[in-house]
Amino acid sequence: MSHPSQRWIIHVDYDAFFASVEELLNPDLRGKPVLVGGSPEGRGVVASCSYPARVFGVRSAMPMARALRLCPQAIVVCGHYRVYGQYSRKIMSMFDEITPLVEQVSIDEAFLDVTGCERLWGSADRIAGMIQRRVQDELGLSVSLGVATAKIVAKMACESGKPHGLVVVPSGHEAAFLAPLAIEKLWGVGQVTSRYLRSLGINTIGDLAEYPAAALERTLGRHAHGMQQAARGIDERQVNPGRERRSVSKESTYMEDVRERSTLTRTLLQMSEQMAAILRAQHLVGKTVRLKLRYHDFTTITRQVALETPTDQDQVIYEQVVALLDQAWPVGAAVRLIGVGVSNLIEEGGYQLSLWDHTDQRRSRLNVVMDEIRERFGDDAILRASLLERPRDR
Amino acid sequence: MRISCMQESLARGLSIVGRAVSTRSSLPVLLNVLMTTDNGRLKLSATNLEIGINCWVGAQVEQEGAITVPARILADLVNSLPPERIDMQLNARTNTLNLRCGRQEANIKGLDAQDFPPLIIIPDDETPVEVNAGTFFQMIDQVAFAAAQDENRPILTGVLAEIREDTLTLAAADGYRLSVRKEPIVSDARQSSVVIPARALQELRRVAIADDQPVSMLISRNRNQAFFHLDDVDVISQLVEGNFPDYRALVPTHHNTEVTLSTTDFLSAVRVAFIFARDASNMTRLQIVPDEGDGPGKVVVTATSSEHGDNVSEIDATVKGAQMEIAFNARFLIDVLQAINTPLVSFSTRDASSPGVFRPVNGPTFEHVLMPMHIGR
């Protein structure tokens, strides 16, 4: 019973992506609780954790210190972001072979619209199975997939099957699939909204779908309609391949507030290197560089600058954020959090060679060599001398 | 001062000198235009202290005099007057200029002419170089675009002007490209080599005059100024101080591949490629395929945007040397191809990471050196 405008959408989410890549790089980690993220002594957070760690209640975005209290035996590794970028790209290019309609949502998540691909590859659930097998066989990574007629349903189907799941919601069964799920599971419903909905007696997605529309609109306003449509599994949003990664960013909270420029600039250098490595791994260049500062009193500012030539070079990003820091930061002000972002991303199309200044060419070659060394020996294998820890920093 | 002139000629004069009026200045008089009676004509002058322009307008002078009035107000007023005779009279006591045209009358408050900085006094000991306007303007078009836009290296925002024996050379370069244009001259002018702001030459270029009129150029080393005189317009510019890099060292002497093709076909292919290239750092690839006995050689121009698609165009070409692929910034290619006005253009290079040299075929002595883009993938 297929409707003419019937679509088939697959949502793919890589299971414990960073942690799984770490296991590939170091097989000794396999089966053990692995946490990828910032230093436990500081205010670092968990960027990714393996399933054995999740058993202890550890989740991503949790402060590292708390994660280690929950799971003291966990192994903490700081990320190989460039390698993650490469694996992500390998998987994404697998998708590109299947359909041109691939929307990369983040480094470890994508939607595929496989409507009309049946003749070539078979039905949507067969395609999903093929993806899961190929990623496992060719890269040794596990992914979960959801297959449905709408993005929201595919995404939630995928969530429900994690890890290594493959959940198909047949056409016409969307609302029935969603109905028993807790209201918090609905994509786009946050803590505040869910608390409010529960106060109305809406505990499941099904409750929301059946709630009188007029009453809901009085209290939730213009969001009511969209939310109720979502609860019924109706989601007209297209898989938009144009929405590539629009920005990369990284921020970190200091263990203690920092007032010294030299400490701030060293963090910025480290972050600039990580941003640039991700850009290079994904063959992207950015036109805008952004600095974020949060002071001890939680006032937060961001400053950005547009570049004349888009870049994927550590030094260019670093010079720009330091210039932004010098403009924005009142010398001596206590900084709690600092962040670097690069946005306005476009494909790396190669770089313009210079007529007489060959510094850029040399720097660029240096970065390529550093990337290769880090890929083989880890992110700490080669460092800029200015990033070496000095005794007084300890 | 009491003078009359036609609205059209005053409007033209004000639009020419208006390019040199300061946009913001701590010296209020620099926002003004100086009006002086001069040998039976009205002389208009404006300067921002970097560039100065004089323009003479035909007038009927009944009483000599001089005044400065706000350029913006005078120009806006004159542009809205009917195309008739404008009678102007200065009240020297109040520094107010009275204008009458048809049934309109206006009074503009001015500042004393004495406060206006003197533009130039031509030193008698210097000999000017004369070039015809059409040629000189073409030289500017072929060179000035290659000057740097940003002020990181101020010297590169200028155009090198060299007078050596019987040749005038203009050269400009930013970080990525170099334009050099030579023209034979007949002149007794001293050998000299100065750097003129590209903007000054572009302003000069905007003054519309007949191609066969002479432009005389005079360099005053002592005053650190360049002076251009056209029939009824003077453009005076401060020189850029510093040493221009040795451009001769940047022009490659060897090449392995040389291509000759239609300038307009090449330009239109690159313009189409640019539609896709602008998503990808403007990168346009040129695949150069030598003649294969039966057919002609060709240049294949391609650009790819992973988001929006791609484009391929083929152009017949005479190819000497090996097959190769090289990539350039499409915008830079468009700039140089627009500057070449012969039907055929030649392009030569050693390899994909060496500069490409573009020259007009059977045209004036013009060379454009353009660095390629490194092909990332």
Short structural description:
The complex is a heterodimer of chains A (394) and B (377). Chain A is of the alpha+beta class and 394 residues long. Chain A is built from 15 helices and 13 strands.
Fold and architecture overview:
The complex is a heterodimer of chains A (394) and B (377). In chain A, a hairpin with a 2-residue loop joins strand 5 (102-106) and strand 6 (109-113). Chain A is α+β, with helices and mostly antiparallel strands and 394 residues long. Chain A has 3 domains: 1-148 and 162-168, 2-Layer Sandwich (Alpha-Beta Plaits), CATH 3.30.70; 175-231, Orthogonal Bundle (DNA polymerase, domain 1), CATH 1.10.150; 245-387, Dna Ligase, domain 1 (2-Layer Sandwich), CATH 3.30.1490. In chain A, helix 11 packs across helix 12 and helix 13 runs antiparallel to helix 14. Helices cover 41% and strands 22% of the residues of chain A. In chain B, the strands form 3 sheets. In chain B, strands 14-11-12-13-25-24-23-18-21-20-19-22 form a 12-stranded antiparallel β-sheet. In chain B, strands 6-2-3-4-17-16-15-10 form an 8-stranded antiparallel β-sheet. Chain B has a 5-stranded antiparallel β-sheet with strand order 5-1-7-8-9. Chain B has helices at residues 7-18, 71-79, 133-143, 198-206, 263-277, 330-339; strands at residues 2-6, 32-38, 41-47, 51-58, 60-63, 66-70, 85-91, 96-101, 104-109, 129-132, 158-164, 167-173, 177-184, 192-197, 214-220, 225-229, 233-238, 257-262, 283-289, 297-305, 309-321, 324-329, 344-349, 356-360, 365-370, 373-374. Chain B contains 6 helices and 26 strands. Chain B is of the alpha+beta class and 377 residues long. Chain B starts with a strand and ends with a strand. Chain B is elongated and about 85 Å long. Classes of the chains: A alpha+beta (394), B alpha+beta (377). The A-B interface holds A 241-242, 244, 283, 285, 308-310, 346-357, 361, 364 and B 150, 173-178, 245, 250, 277, 279-283, 305-307, 327, 329, 353, 355, 369, 371-377.
